[in-house]
Amino acid sequence: MAHILGIDVSKAKLDVALRRPDGKWRSKVIENTPTGFGVLGEWLTSHGVDSVHACLEATGTYWEAVAEFLADAGHTVSVVNPAQIKAFGGAGLVRSKTDRIDARLIADFCAAQCPPPWQAPPVSVRTLRALVARREALEAMRTQERNRLPVSDEAVRGGIEAHLAHLEQAIADIDAAIRHTIDDDPGLRGQGELLVSIPGLGDKTVAALLAYYGGPLRFESAKQAVAFAGLDPRQHQSGSSVRGKPRLSKVGHARLRKALYMPAMVATTRTAWGRALKQRLAAAGKPPMLILGAMMRKLLCVAYGVLRSGRPFDPTLHQLA
Average pLDDT for residues 29-54, to the nearest whole number? Predict the structure, then answer.
């Protein structure tokens, strides 16, 4: 058995548990910072570890930096859904929960399940992902300030207006940086041109899709790409009495679902292929929100399809009547 490293991720620290081939454990707490990552590398070397299979949960964005550090150092890294670790712990009747216990539980899961390796995105994709996340945060702040302005007191109105002007400029700067990041990378530029060919997708949505699906494709099928965004349907049925309505699983990346919401609205009202899908599902008695979710899923399937095939959107492949 190889060395297994379980990492419990939080904002400020990382609890790591090293499972040695002889079954013994070594544990350590380090800072979730570049300095802490250096300490982690030295700690692994001090235990004679040249190669390790590290496993950690996809907890917000706090896991990305350490995963990239380990992958760049040549280690195998697996990033798993927290729901998998929770289910694994429940199956093993784990009764206590601490960061130290969770780190060992993640290592045990890695040893038992051998999750597939995570592929670190290229630097350009990492940069694009950071810019897209920052743009979303700036837009949220702008919306908050716009809501405050009409009811603000005269004493603070000038400050709010100045902040709004600053946010508008910051968003414009971020948009320019996003365009430059895509244009400066031939691969991203070509993938962006493919995505723009899909009716309903604008520049913001294309940037979001490239941030999480751009570069080397890491999913074998559009179905896996849809599941990554949490847009796969979840059914709840049991016996003859339980017949729950199908819903989106939402066990995936919320930022992608948010990015696809408005494009789905546009596609179902202003594009021929989107209206055809809407009419077909409405004729089958499907409610409006289910139709919208289906359109979001369809958009993502088509987007990943054009990325895999390298061919732009072809309307003849979709039902238009």
Answer: 95
State the alpha helices, DSSP H only, in 6-122. 34-46, 64-72, 82-91, 99-113
pTM of the model: 0.84
Residue the block writes with tokens 């702040």: 141
* The pLDDT value given to residue 236: 62
pLDDT at 321: 41
- Whole-angstrom Cα Rg for the chain: 23
List the chain domain ranges: 4-113, 123-184, 203-317
Closest to 318 in 3D by CA, of 289, 291, 286, 295: 295
Which tokens in the block code for residue 60?
A: 């917000």
Q: Residue 2 is which amino acid?
A: A
Q: With H, G, I as helix, E, B as strand and everything else as coil, classify residue 14.
A: strand
Q: Of how many residues is the chain composed?
A: 321
**Averaged over 250-263, what is the pLDDT?**
89
Domain 4-113 has CATH 2.60.40.1930: no
Tokens of 277: 């899908």
Statement: residue 185 has pLDDT above 90: yes
DSSP secondary structure, 261-280, as one string? HHHHHHHHHH-HHHHHHHHH
